Amino acid sequence: MANGYRTQFQTIQDILTSQGYDMSVLTDPGSLYGYGASTPYGKFFRPFDVSGYQQAQQALMQQESTLLADVGQQFSQATTALQTQFGSTMGKLSGEAGVSGLVSGAQQRVREQAYETGMEQFSEQARQRLARYSAVEEQIGTRLGQLQGTLFDYLGGIAQTGLQITSLDTTGGTTGTESRMATQADIDRFANQLPYDRESFMANAQSMLGQPYQQLLDLYSNYQRTNI
Fold it and tell me: In terms of pTM, does the model score above 0.70?
């Protein structure tokens, strides 16, 4: 529908990519912190309901299409009725002028007023149509924001869980966070999760490339606490 009011829906993959994650953070979130599903601590990380999220988003897309179509149909019918009324009024006035064979000044003014009134009615109808489209956009946008909020809440929750377990676990996780070496991808991912001080974190983390992953995790934990 070419009304310009369709909501921009993002796939769950696109949202994760923009935050520095991939789909594994939803299926095995503990692995991000070295506590995968196969480890004793993996049970503290619950997978995200990807299917439920996608179904909810699809339902929003369908609802938006239905609402926009309803608005378009309603105002299409209203416009047709207004055009018919306007044409009838102008035709009647033209007929009256034709009977007399003359267009008096008074008749001309009546025609002009009728024309202006008709144009005002068309403009008001267009304004109301755009307002209805905007209302649909706002309604769907609000619900989409709430839906995406469940995803961001989930990401924030697993970050907190990961940090809490890391602070309590002296083994470093049975997946071997101590034997794992930090990569640039690890640094970028953690930086993207920080609301502030990203440049500072990146600068300090560069020296940890190729160093034990636990050191990078500890640095991120410190920055996370200062940003709370």
Answer: no
